[in-house]
Amino acid sequence: AQSLGFDEAIVLNEFNKISEAAVSNLLLKINGQWVTPPLTDGALPGVVRALVLENCDVSVRSIDISEMQEIESAFLIGSLRIVQSIDSIDSRALMQSSEFKREIQAMALRTSVG
Which among 12, 29, 55, 58 is least buried, having the fewest CB atoms inside 10 angstroms? Predict the structure, then answer.
């Protein structure tokens, strides 16, 4: 990804389902709903992912590659970065969800992560 000028890569499983980023879990806003891929699609069971699922309004569901254009906003989440906004996917700018980012950061502080 970096050799092509990107900061991160979205990883697909063998069924063209989004599983995670190269070194982080994903939160994706699709049709107004925050979702994250299920472990069965290849997502790693990250600590921050588990806390977000427990404390925030996020659903778990399979996300097909065909939905890539429907992603409105997105975050990388993980123990090292807690939450980082994704500015664009395939050079398509995404909306920034600052309020939800602050909610995740506050939740991380409350639960002693980071």
Answer: 55
